[in-house]
Amino acid sequence: MEVLSDDIQQAFRALSDPTRRQILLQLCKEELSITEVVEQFDLTRTAVRKHLTILEEGQLIVVIPKGKERISRLNPVGLKKTADWFGYFDQYWDNALSSLKNAVEANTPKNKR
C-alpha cells in the first residue's frame, strides 16, 4: 500500500473529531446551511464554520453558495476514497477469520461437525 496521500491525511484529520463526525451524520440525512448546523449543535457559528472548513478540506463535504447562505452536502467521492483506504485492510480480517475457522474445525471432534 502506498504512503497516505495529502487528501487522505486531510480526511482523517476531519474524521478525528467527534463533532465533525456528528455533522457528517446529519449531512447524510440532508443538506444543511451553517445556520441549520448551528441550530443542531451547541456551538457558535464560528466553531461550526471551522468544522465545516476542515470537512471541506478533507473532501468529505462540498459547500455550495446559495444566495447569502452556504449549503453543505456530503461528497461521495471523498467518502469513497476514505472507505477504499480502509477496505484495503479487509484482506487481513478475511485471512484472520479464515485461520480461526480452520483452527476451530481442526479442534472439533468429527462427530460434532
Structure in a nutshell:
With 113 residues, the chain is α+β, with helices and mostly antiparallel strands. The chain is built from six helices and three strands; from the N terminus they run ααβααββαα. A three-stranded antiparallel beta sheet has the order 1-3-2.
Secondary structure layout:
Blueprint lengths: L5 H10 L2 H12 L2 E2 H7 L4 H13 L3 E6 L2 E6 L1 H12 L2 H17 L7
Antiparallel strand pairs: 1-3, 2-3
Specify Rg, calculated over alpha carbons: 21 Å
**What percentage of the residues does DSSP assign to strands (E)?**
5-15%
What coarse outline follows from CA principal-axis ratios? elongated
Spatial order of the strands in the main sheet? 1-3-2
Search tags:
Arc Repressor Mutant, subunit A; 12% strand; three-stranded antiparallel beta sheet; alpha+beta; 113 residues
What does this structure look like?
- With 113 residues, the protein is α+β, with helices and mostly antiparallel strands.
- It has a single domain, classed as Arc Repressor Mutant, subunit A (Orthogonal Bundle).
- It is built from six helices and three strands, in the order ααβααββαα.
- It has helices at residues 6-15, 18-29, 34-40, 45-57, 76-87, 90-106; strands spanning 32-33, 61-66, 69-74.
- Strands 1-3-2 form a three-stranded antiparallel sheet.
- Helix 2 crosses helix 4 (45-57) and helix 3 (34-40) crosses helix 4.
- The two termini are 39 Å apart.
- 14% of the residues are buried.
- The model has no long low-confidence stretch (mean pLDDT 87).
